[in-house]
Specification:
Elements lengths: L2 E5 L3 E2 L5 E8 L9 E7 L6 E7 L4 E3 L7 E6 L4 E6 L8 E8 L6 E4 L3 E5 L2
Parallel strand pairs: 2-11
Antiparallel strand pairs: 1-3, 3-8, 4-5, 4-9, 5-6, 7-8, 9-10, 9-11
Length: about 120
């Protein structure tokens, strides 16, 4: 059973970089089935896909966020980390990590989500 656990600060100041780590248990990040994804849901809005890192280490980002987004991993800790730079209050959201099994949008395992507020 794959489990994902989010961690990171709940409050970030505008113009700073948001950094959230997702720790995976129950299977390695490098497994063939695994596109390790980041999503978010702003208040009152729908779920927004941010990007993913594949089991092989390739990354793919939403075009609207690509210039500010980076997803990296630490295979020794079985963690993957989202960094979103130059944040504004519009980046306030509940942030999720999840596994996309085949890279086509079927998200079968989710972290619990973490609220991040952008405010000075």
């Amino acid at each position: 059973q794959v489990q994902l656990q989010e961690s990171g600060p709940g409050l970030v100041k505008p113009s700073q970089t948001l950094s959230l780590t997702c720790t995976v248990s129950g299977g390695p990040l490098t497994t063939t089935y695994g596109y390790w994804s980041r999503l978010r849901q702003p208040p009152g809005k729908g779920l927004e896909w941010i990007g993913y890192m594949s089991y092989s280490g390739d990354t793919y980002y939403s075009p609207s966020l690509k210039s500010r987004t980076s997803i990296s991993r630490d295979t020794s800790k079985n963690q993957f980390t989202l960094q979103l730079s130059s944040v504004t209050p519009e980046d306030t959201a509940v942030y999720y990590c999840a596994r996309d099994r085949d890279g086509v949008g079927y998200l079968d395992y989710w972290g619990q989500g973490t609220q991040v507020t952008i405010s000075s």
